[in-house]
Amino acid sequence: MNSDRTRMMLLCLLAVIGLSSLTGCQNRLKMERDALYVQNQELQEELDRARAAMGSGGDPSGLLAEIESLRAQLANQPVAGANTAFDHIPGVDAYASGGTVTVRVEGDILFASGKVDLKGSAKSTLNQIAGIIKNEYPGNTIRVEGYTDTDPIRKSKWKDNLELSLQRSAAVHRQLQTQGIAADNMYAAGFGEARARETKEKSRRVQIVVVLRE
Question: How many domains does the chain contain in total?
Fold first, then answer.
């Protein structure tokens, strides 16, 4: 493997990370974010080739460890500004990391307590999200994830929090579908009280995850 070429690739990747922290237009930020993911995949392939070439002969230059370390950093690097398209939507936050863009919507914005029917205002929120997804990520796989807080189900008709989270993610899935996102590109999942966040309010949520690359 040409070590000079590999080192140049690493420098380019670090330069992209630096650029992503600057302000600029939304399209440039999106391109940089997606480029980071693609370049991370290319670096992983470079790492795999290096491992195969070196076999059991070791890595006297330490280059293999250097590549692996930087690849790991890139895989977990949130891209500043990647959520600008969603920033204007109340109750929504978004971030890009590890090959996905996650759009998080507070459950209390979407549903009344213990309910799975979307509020009227929730449909407007989801319609805005759907419009952005259609414009920026046409054809990408969309995973709709439902979550609840850790309080056990006591009075509602749902068997448990898992069932409630599944019904809520399905409701969001159906609303996105009415806005033109193909059902073939989406699937719904429920996690119940798993992956609870620091407060009950933040734990009750639906996350719309855009997969950048399969």
Answer: 2
